[in-house]
């Protein structure tokens, strides 16, 4: 954020070091509130034992989900790990689990609540674990965008496609307007489907995934894409530009993947001759275009599993996952490095630390339901419709 923008918003940016440590909140990018109750001290030497004991006491009543980007100290207690959609489905397949503790961020817990049964309660250990990308598209902004599209006479030709990394409100908007959800694994299939339903796609909220899929995978040109900026009148676009576009990309991005640059790719190729560059499609288009392989977190893991001994890899995704993969495959002689030279954790993912997990598990074990994430029924119904369209994709 520039200083001018900060002044305009009248908020002070949180010092980066505090965000990286998982402390403090950035009011621009994070939803939620401070965690209620007494958190155990991070220096408590018994935290691991306390988490284990509380989980054991809860038994089958609790199911802990761990997103790939979570810290190791938390991942060790996950019953299952994966990307957000896989985790939500895993939770739905465990109806006997009354409590789903989601070690991830807010929109993931919402998706789990949408896909699990009414009797299952989803808990987010720290309510301030939001996602800056998901927060870049609010329900009001998207409704305004639809008015702009209607005014330009194109709304009827537009099919919304929303990335899983969006709030329940945005998923519901998508369901209501005949669209579908996509993940980074099935974005191509979702767009193929959408272009069978209409002539244009409104892609929310990650411009990079939308652009990369349209241009790299589907052969569209960069000129087929326009970017709708919710902070400008009419999205900063003329009616003619909207009429000419095939892909209307929401101006959102992931603050973690957005940090990788073409320089990061060139630099690592110079430092490590023969390195394979493997990046997530949330990276900028020039990074994706310069990479050797592009794919979701599941794709990244599978590619490294299949890689031969002695191969070298630079990975462009969140650092917790890259570090874990580097450790896991070191014994197989695979050299895995982080694509960028600077630290790149997801600060909001990192909010779920061991003290918050211990606090959530112990509270549940004592019969106190804390930090429940519950989507209202109407939103849930429309969001589910969009998710079901994704499940039905060929
Ligand atoms: S890595 Fe990016 S998209 Fe994922 S939770 Fe963090 S900010 Fe959101």
UniProtKB/TrEMBL annotation:
InterPro entries: NadA, NadA_sf, Quinolinate_synth_A_type3. Keywords: 4Fe-4S, Cytoplasm, Iron, Iron-sulfur, Metal-binding, Pyridine nucleotide biosynthesis, Transferase. Its cofactor is [4Fe-4S] cluster. It is an enzyme of class 2 (transferase). Pathway: Cofactor biosynthesis; NAD(+) biosynthesis; quinolinate from iminoaspartate: step 1/1. Residues 23-33 have a biased composition (Basic and acidic residues). It catalyses: iminosuccinate + dihydroxyacetone phosphate = quinolinate + phosphate + 2 H2O + H(+). Binds 1 [4Fe-4S] cluster per subunit. It is found in: Cytoplasm. Iminosuccinate binds at residues 67, 84, 163-165, 184, 280-282, 297. NCBIfam families: nadA, PRK09375.2-2, PRK09375.2-4. Catalyzes the condensation of iminoaspartate with dihydroxyacetone phosphate to form quinolinate. Belongs to the quinolinate synthase family. Type 3 subfamily. This is Quinolinate synthase. It comes from Streptomyces marokkonensis. The lineage of its organism: Bacteria, Bacillati, Actinomycetota, Actinomycetes, Kitasatosporales.
């Amino acid at each position: 954020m520039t200083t001018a923008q900060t002044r305009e918003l009248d908020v002070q940016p949180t010092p980066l070091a505090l965000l990286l440590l998982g402390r403090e909140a950035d009011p621009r990018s994070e939803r939620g509130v401070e965690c209620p109750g007494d958190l155990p001290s991070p220096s408590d030497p018994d935290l691991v034992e306390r988490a284990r004991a509380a989980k054991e006491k809860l038994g089958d009543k609790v199911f802990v989900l761990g997103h790939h980007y979570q810290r190791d100290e938390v991942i060790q207690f996950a019953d299952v790990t994966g990307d957000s959609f896989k985790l939500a489905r895993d939770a739905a397949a465990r109806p006997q689990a009354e409590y789903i503790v989601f070690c991830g961020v807010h929109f993931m817990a919402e998706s789990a609540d949408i896909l699990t049964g009414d009797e299952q309660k989803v808990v987010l250990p720290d309510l301030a674990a939001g996602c800056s990308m998901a927060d870049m598209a609010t329900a009001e902004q998207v409704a305004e965008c639809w008015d702009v599209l209607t005014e330009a006479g194109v709304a009827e030709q537009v099919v919304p496609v929303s990335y899983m990394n969006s709030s329940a409100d945005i998923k519901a908007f998508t369901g209501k307007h005949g669209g579908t959800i996509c993940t980074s694994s099935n974005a191509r299939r979702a767009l193929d489907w959408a272009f069978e339903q209409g002539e244009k796609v409104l892609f929310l909220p990650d411009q990079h995934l939308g652009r990369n899929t349209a241009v790299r995978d589907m052969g569209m040109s960069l000129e087929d894409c326009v970017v709708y900026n919710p902070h400008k009148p009419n999205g900063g676009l003329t009616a003619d530009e909207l009429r000419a576009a095939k892909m209307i990309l929401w101006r959102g991005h992931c603050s973690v993947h957005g940090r990788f640059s073409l320089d990061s790719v060139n630099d690592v190729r110079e430092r490590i001759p023969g390195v394979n560059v493997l990046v997530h499609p949330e990276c900028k288009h020039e990074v994706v275009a310069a990479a050797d392989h592009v794919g979701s977190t599941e794709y990244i893991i599978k590619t490294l599993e299949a890689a031969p001994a002695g191969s070298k890899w630079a990975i462009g995704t969140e650092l917790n996952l890259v570090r874990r993969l580097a450790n896991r495959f070191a014994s197989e002689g695979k050299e895995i490095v982080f694509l960028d030279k600077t630290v790149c954790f997801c600060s909001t993912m990192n909010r779920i630390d061991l003290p918050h997990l211990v606090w959530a598990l112990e509270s549940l074990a004592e019969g106190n339901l804390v930090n429940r994430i519950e989507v209202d029924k109407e939103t849930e119904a429309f969001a589910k419709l969009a998710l079901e369209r994704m499940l039905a994709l060929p």
